[in-house]
Amino acid sequence: AILTQVGLERWLCLRRVLAPRRRNLTMSGDAEAAGQSARRVPGEARIVCLLCAVNFIEHADSAVLSASMISLEEDLNISMLGLSILYAGGGISMSIFGIVWGMLADHVSRKVLLTCTCVGWGLFSLLGAATQSAHMLFVLRWGQQAMLSSMGPLSQSIVADISEPLRRGTLFGRINLGGGLGGLITKPLALAAADITLAHGIRGWRAMLGLVGVLGLVAALLISRFMAEPDREQAPLARTEAEPAKPGRSCGLQCRLFAGLFCIPSFLALLGQGIFGCTAMYAKGFDALYLKRCGHSGAALGTMSLIGGIAGLPAAQLNGAIPDAFARRSPLHGRPCAAQVSVVAGAIAFAIWVLVAPRVGIMALTAIGILEGLVGGWVTPGVKLPILAEIVPPHQRATSMAWLATLEGSLGGIVGPMSVGFLAEQVFGYHGPRSAKDAGEEGSDDSRAALGTALLWCTLLPWMMQAAVFFPILHCTYRRDLCRSQAVYKIASSAEDDDSAPAATEVGKPTGS
């Protein structure tokens, strides 16, 4: 490790000595391309705080579902495969509707969109808390996640318009800090209360889901009252695409945008790593169920989630700041390198966590989980989102983000949960609560081993594909795509200046000649 560090430092010094002009050109071109995004807008801190609040509720919703899996098995008689379908259905809904919100975000007030989706999100959550049917819960979960899918494209568009390129990773990290707080506060409560019966016979998981719905309605009220609509960063020659168009022409523009994204090699690399990353992320949603199968109580899991969440709050901020530091050292290779380090370190930590979970106490698992959160969460806030903001035109950022989220989330959302459910139940011999009770302690041990093995297969393999295949591709393609984006921006700026010059001359032309 020391030799590698020394060699990297020598290479960076040699690169600065031999190619200062290329680096300066890259950084100055990047600053030029940022344009108005480096401009601070009024109420920027308030906008970021409100986005943190929405992300808070989003992670709270995920924590409630993850903590309530055993309760759903018992109360609604849902099998492991049924839980996988419920989980996958929510991910597919987010992916499908994400592109709709992305298209709207490029042309409609983002404040209005956030307000409306938070209201719908809250109502679907309240209805889901009251339903008595597993099939109706599937439908309501689909609608809830459809509303929730607006968060990704809208936050991508807003943050790109209120920040400069080298600060975007930090701001996305702050927004993820809000999500960390949501998991910190909600998951311990959900783990402790999901299996108990509260007043008037209300089950704990229903109360927690209803709380998420109320928080969604409160967030809608705060956004409508306090959020200021940020100015959009307009790319040159974007005015023609922003003009009202007929439905057929609008569909044609979206088709051309979609085809154009597939002509960007860095976008394809981001898409590939995103598919495998989402597969592992959705597979990890069964971690609370696995710990309960290992014999840890709901109160112990709540304690672990609380301590881990408090210790992980600084990590949420560092997840964006550390890749920014890599990018300052090497603008072209820093972020891909940070992603590789993060994925490999996080995979090792999670594998250790799964393997030792049946044999160690809750505090040891908490320490391993803190380590995983510290090193394994750099990719989205510090690598994927900043790179995507630099390789696509400013006026198409929200739509591009929505396409990326749709493609990676739909495939990863299907493969991740379904593969865990299928491998655990059909290959490795997992049994539900009732069948495990009939089979005795041996059946419970078999279910634990089956679920743990499925988790390892469905997380480690996708992570290794990210680190060994797609991020090395990004090392090769990012520089060319960034230069192409800057060249297109400069050409468009020159064309716009040439178009406006005759008009200015005509206005200033003396009348007597």
Descriptive account of the structure:
Pfam families: MFS_1 (PF07690). Residues 47-470 form the Major facilitator superfamily (MFS) profile domain. Belongs to the major facilitator superfamily. Spinster (TC 2.A.1.49) family. GO terms for molecular function: transmembrane transporter activity. It is a multi-pass membrane protein. With 513 residues, the chain is mostly helical. It has two domains: 43-230, Growth Hormone, Chain: A (Up-down Bundle); 258-498, Growth Hormone, Chain: A, CATH 1.20.1250. The chain contains 20 helices and no strands. The chain starts with a helix and ends in a 5-residue tail after the last helix. 51% of the residues are buried. The model is unreliable at 1-39, 236-248, 436-443 and 503-513 (pLDDT under 50).
Brief summary of the model shown:
This protein has 513 residues and is an all-alpha fold. It has 20 helices and no strands.
List the domain count as a whole number: 2
| Overall morphology | globular
Termini separation comes to: 77 Å
C-alpha Rg, in Å? Answer: 24 Å
Show unreliable segments.
Answer: 1-39, 236-248, 436-443, 503-513
Please provide the count of β strands.
0
CATH architecture of the largest domain: Up-down Bundle
What portion of residues is helical?
over 70%
